[in-house]
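thought: user wants a sequence for this fold. calling inverse folding tool.
action: design(structure=
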């Protein structure tokens, strides 16, 4: 049962300080590396090092309220640096490190966009990014204090009493309603939007979500999730550290190359909690080989939390079937609905009980109605659970009026951990946040027996002859076809001016590269659409790793549609 020892702390720093004082030797962060060079930060050591970073940052000129961008790969010094930024009242903003597939110009454009919108005051990065970032430092005066390389700093051995007193003055002047961090929305349907969260929002969320998952002192979290995404930053980093438990951090790039590393870590450290986006269930079930699991035991896991817009039943089934022989309990497969604007969790399914599944009529669903059925034209809906404490949800129509339980419409949320608006983005804030505190998510879903079922994004709906077609259903069907790379499918609508409606198009990655194989695969994709009463008109087959992902790790429909429409890639095969 969740029983947080310290309820007096009003800021994250004071919460961390409490645990450093009461359990200084307990592991706070286990920095895991595939090389075996793991580093274990105890709560006492972590806060001592964070103090050193706070002092160095203060000497550098970082002030309370400044936004500090962090562009640093998996490194043991990241954690005390992050805490040190918070410790002087500045706002850490973790940004994605450019990978080999991200062109320098695209990375620069993204950084400029964030600088303009977020007002980045400082950039702390690795030395190899200097030539890419330095030309941007004076760009329109948005990044005004320069670029620094904290991994190269030689920190003081000890902080003297006067320096510590000055740091304590800054911390004592910080209150619960002050901002503590800046994170960016996932950007699946557009430019990433900057979200500032207060100490109170984060601590309230930790308290409420901790109760929802029945967090205890014995829990250990394990995660490969990038810390620039809300699931990694809040669930796998802030939640453990503000609750006095241990978090194990795995390099996301290493996990992509060897997904079995997560299971190895869980087995060796007896981790009890992990959070995964839906695609990871399929990827791990498909790519991890039996010989990689020889010494793995997953019996310690009490919750594997699926946190995606739409939870897929077949992903859970495939994951459980693959790993049940290694101690994975079926009841560990739980779910959550979350977003950066509410700090993280909105709903959570019951702990240690497999998420509820229901059968709904696919045709009625396309018309916006929920009808429980057992007929062959069914779709399996997986519950994202019930609202956590101090969080409300409702389903609303185009006029933002609440509708009955049998309707599929937009999900609206009100939470004690709500953001207060997009930073320097009043127009967008006004679009989604009303004066009564309701946030209109842009997601479609319905409520059945008090549990939320998420369908997808409103902007992604394909409207064919007046019927709503959900791209997730098409992507699920096509993704099961042999020789289509699992999880690497995008469905979207193309305007047909002659018919006056949209036609369904699909982009799918495949290793095939000759005309005969590609044409046959295209027909298989069309047949897969027919199996769910969908007419796929246009098929685009592309080579592996062609699809562009959003920051949350999902292929972006909008971006990939535009890329196809621009018709600039000769590697694309089309049935048109």
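)
observation: tool returned 576 residues.
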């Amino acid at each position: 049962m969740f029983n947080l020892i310290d309820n007096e702390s009003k800021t994250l720093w004071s919460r961390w300080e409490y645990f450093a004082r009461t359990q200084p030797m307990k592991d706070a962060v286990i920095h895991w590396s595939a090389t075996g060079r793991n580093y274990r930060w105890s709560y006492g050591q972590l806060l001592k090092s964070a103090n050193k970073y706070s002092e160095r940052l203060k000497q550098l000129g970082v002030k309370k309220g400044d936004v500090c961008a962090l562009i640093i790969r998996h490194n043991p010094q990241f954690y005390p640096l992050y805490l040190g930024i918070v410790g002087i009242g500045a706002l850490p903003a973790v940004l994605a490190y450019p990978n080999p597939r991200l062109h320098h110009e695209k990375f620069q454009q993204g950084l400029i966009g964030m600088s303009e919108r977020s007002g980045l005051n400082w950039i702390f990065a690795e030395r190899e990014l200097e030539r890419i970032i330095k030309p941007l430092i004076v760009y329109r005066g948005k990044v005004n204090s320069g670029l620094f390389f904290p991994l190269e700093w030689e920190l003081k051995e000890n902080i003297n009493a006067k320096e510590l007193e000055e740091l304590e003055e800054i911390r004592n002047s910080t209150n619960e309603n002050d901002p503590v961090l800046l994170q960016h929305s996932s950007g699946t349907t557009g430019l990433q939007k900057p979200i500032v969260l207060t100490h109170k929002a984060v601590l309230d969320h930790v308290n409420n979500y901790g109760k929802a998952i029945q967090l205890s002192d014995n829990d250990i979290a394990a995660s490969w999730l990038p810390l620039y995404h809300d699931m990694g930053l809040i669930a796998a980093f802030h939640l453990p550290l503000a609750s006095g438990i241990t978090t194990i951090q795995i390099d996301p790039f290493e996990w992509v190359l060897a997904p079995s590393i997560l299971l190895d870590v869980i087995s060796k450290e007896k981790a009890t909690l992990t959070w995964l986006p839906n695609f990871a269930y399929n990827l791990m079930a498909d790519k991890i080989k039996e010989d990689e699991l020889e010494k793995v035991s997953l019996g310690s896991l009490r919750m594997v939390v699926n946190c995606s817009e739409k939870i897929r039943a077949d992903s859970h089934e495939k994951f459980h079937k693959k790993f049940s022989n290694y101690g994975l309990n079926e009841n560990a497969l739980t779910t959550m609905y979350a977003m950066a604007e509410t700090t993280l969790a909105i709903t959570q399914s019951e702990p240690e009980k497999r998420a509820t599944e229901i059968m709904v009529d696919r045709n009625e669903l396309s018309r916006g109605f929920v009808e429980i059925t057992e007929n062959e034209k069914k779709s399996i809906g997986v519950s994202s659970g019930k609202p956590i404490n101090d969080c409300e949800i409702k389903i609303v129509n185009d006029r933002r009026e609440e509708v009955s339980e049998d309707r599929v419409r937009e999900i609206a949320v009100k939470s004690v951990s709500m953001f207060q608006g997009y930073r320097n983005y009043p127009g967008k804030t006004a679009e989604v946040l009303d004066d009564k505190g309701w946030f209109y998510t842009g997601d479609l879903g319905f409520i059945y027996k008090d549990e939320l079922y998420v369908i997808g994004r409103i902007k992604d709906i394909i409207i064919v002859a007046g019927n709503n077609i959900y791209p997730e259903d098409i992507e699920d069907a096509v993704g099961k076809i042999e020789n289509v790379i699992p999880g690497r499918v995008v469905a979207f609508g193309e305007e047909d001016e002659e018919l006056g409606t949209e036609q369904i198009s699909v982009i799918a990655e495949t290793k095939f590269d000759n005309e005969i194989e590609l044409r046959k695969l295209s027909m298989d994709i069309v047949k897969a659409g027919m199996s769910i009463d969908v007419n796929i008109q246009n098929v685009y087959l592309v080579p592996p790793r062609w699809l562009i992902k959003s920051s949350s790790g999902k292929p972006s429909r909008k971006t990939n549609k535009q890329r196809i429409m621009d018709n600039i890639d000769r590697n694309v095969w089309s049935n048109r």
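thought: summarizing for user.
answer: Here is the designed sequence. The mean pLDDT is 89.
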